[in-house]
Amino acid sequence: MANIELMKLYKKNKSKEIKDQLIIENIELVKIIAGRLYHSYNSNVEYDDIVSYGILGLIDAIDKFDPDKNVKFETYANFRIRGAIIDNLRNLDWVPRSTRQKYKKFEEAMSKLQGEYGFDIDDEILAKELGLSIEELNSFLSEVSIFSIISLDEKIAENSNFSIVSDDFDARPESNYIKNEDKEILKETIEKLPEREKKIIQLYYFSELTYKEISKILNVSESRVSQLHTKCIVKLKNSLKKIYT
Fold it and tell me: 32, 37, 85, 225: which has the fewest C-beta neighbours closer than 10 Å?
């Protein structure tokens, strides 16, 4: 039975059996989202814990979803699952203070360089700004990548309930919609990224590939994909600051 029909039955009688069936039928979606986030956070948290947080989001989605609205349950559940995982990770405060401080330094450096060079900031320029060698920069980027994904997700969630994963903005089942002009700013920012960084954004957020899969397509290491992704995230976040500040 399709999710929408099950949802209508569940909303009608609140049957525990139907709710359990909905959880079982959508657990694979939780595992997919959990797997992608697990790799994004450099395995600093247990995969099973992330799945558990995702299941809480799925249950919340089942309870709050309105099947009479023109929204796919999978779209709504994706948003709730991802949000629950991020909220729980944020509450754990698992990112070391030193990493947060380094990320802040990195963010400030990138913001300055964006003002001078635009979006095409190579490693040599960034390393010089941070006072690091290329080898030290690679190590630095690998460390701050732990914090970069959750930092962007927090920025987006706090301000607009908008997810970069889906372009289905009009169907987003939340009370606060991102304005059309804001959406255009984000799209324009992605278009300004260097081709390889733009490709990473497309493959990671829209095609929903893992770092390993992207590394094979781009013929670079997984660590290099992570480093480039980290730079992309800060550029996008700096653009979002122009919207929300």
Answer: 32
